[in-house]
Amino acid sequence: MTTPRLSPFLALLYGGLRLFGRLSLRTLHRLGSACGSLIWLLDGRLRRVTERNLSLLLTQDSAETRQAIARAVLRETGKSMTEVAIVWAGSPQRALGLVREVRGLEHLEAARAAGRGLIIAAPHLGCWELLNYWLAERMPLSIAYRQPQRPYFEPLLLKARGALQVEQVRAEGAGVRALYRRLNAGGVVGILPDQRPKRGEGEFAPFFGIPAMTMVLLPRLARHTGAPVVFAFAERLPDGAGFRIHLLPAPAGIADADLGVACAALNRGVEDCVRIAFTQYQWTYKRYSIQPDGQPNPYAAAAAGDED
User: Fold this and answer.
1) pLDDT > 70 in the chain, percent
2) Are 266 and 178 in contact (CB under 8 A)?
3) What is the largest CA-CA distance in the chain?
4) pTM score, two decimals?
């Protein structure tokens, strides 16, 4: 893969990341936790969306309990922002040295042994950028991504994620066809299964009991190629101690011909991961902003005017 050329601004930003990445993971996580505490105090969009998501999900908990969880979520969010300096701008070997444990490796090995390709479903949980490295070190990997909302950052993302020669494919048009080809040839494809598609491009399925617009790309890839699906994430360990890789089997029905059934299974797989490290999930995301016809946007009052 050709290394993208960075603009002067992005080159300066990348250089700053490289310098920042010289710090220890413990230091970066402490800085990130402090950033998360500041985000809480500023009471902006990230806090409001997090609190709204938790109010929708944790209906049996008191307001005080939900606030404590929301503060923990924002501290983990801050850590996710600072730890990428090690993953993106440092040595891949140094980043991979931070993996302390792997759980569920047998699921990955069994899926690979089937010889029908493999789909890795990697939710926005823990350090998904490190997970890319861990997978790419073991097997040729293609990852599907969506162009960022600010397109001028795309060259930086491509450069940062390409340290181990990961093939990066836009999840659109020709890119989707390339994913089918990789899987049919026995390759491995990584997909973020919890990115919310636009209305009309997905199916509604329960996510923690609430209707959520859910991607159909992953279930269709699984059905039409016969590739097994394994869920995976890198859990952040306390006090900068490193990371734990989790690999989980996909729920039954994820390749069902009925997309409603398949998308419900997909969301159950994400839920299985999130329950292991609840506060490390991206609860700052407006996962439920698209609702079935007649149902209001649950963020309209909590985050009016904010972008997704």
Assistant:
1) 90
2) no
3) 52
4) 0.91
